[in-house]
Amino acid sequence: MADAKNKTQETDADVRAFLEAVEHPVRRADGLVLDALFRKITGWQPKMWGPTIVGYGSYHYKYESGREGDCNASGFSPRKAAQSIYIMPGYQDYGDILSRLGKYKIGKACLYINKLADVDMDVLEELIRAGLRDLAKKYPVSPT
Q1: What is the pLDDT of residues 81-124, one digit of tens each?
Q2: Cα–Cα distance between 115 and 23 in angstroms, integer?
Q3: Is 57 left (phi over 0), alpha (psi -120 to 50) or beta?
Q4: Angle at CA of residue 17, ends 72 and 71, nearest 5°
Q5: Does any domain span residue 7?
Q6: pTM here?
Q7: Domain containing 30 — which CATH number?
Q8: Rounded Cα–Cα distance for residues 91 and 127 (Å)
Q9: How many distinct structural domains can be found in the chain?
């Protein structure tokens, strides 16, 4: 189990080309806005993780089971149904922030936003910062 590799690995694919090729016009425009927001928040250059995730920073994790690997510290993916925004420790402790965000759906470590116009961008920035801060308490985060 310890040798199992993540399906999603960092690649050398061009982030800008990926974002500009997104078919859905709102997802494409919002993806470019999110890229600028993540760059502002982190100060890091984005990297593609697999074919569809734009990631910022990375960290190495090791679970009690022995499974370990590398993952992006935060990021997003312009999916067909919604923008998926990744906060790697998950959203379990962010109820106060989420209550002020606006319209969204949530998964374990994914925030699904139909369009950025549905959310308060200052609150989204606060949430991304909180996620990165909390992740860094658990694992060392490296810039990209």
Answers
A1: 999 999 887 777 899 999 999 999 998 889 999 999 999 999 99
A2: 14
A3: left
A4: 10
A5: no
A6: 0.92
A7: 3.90.1150.200
A8: 9
A9: 1
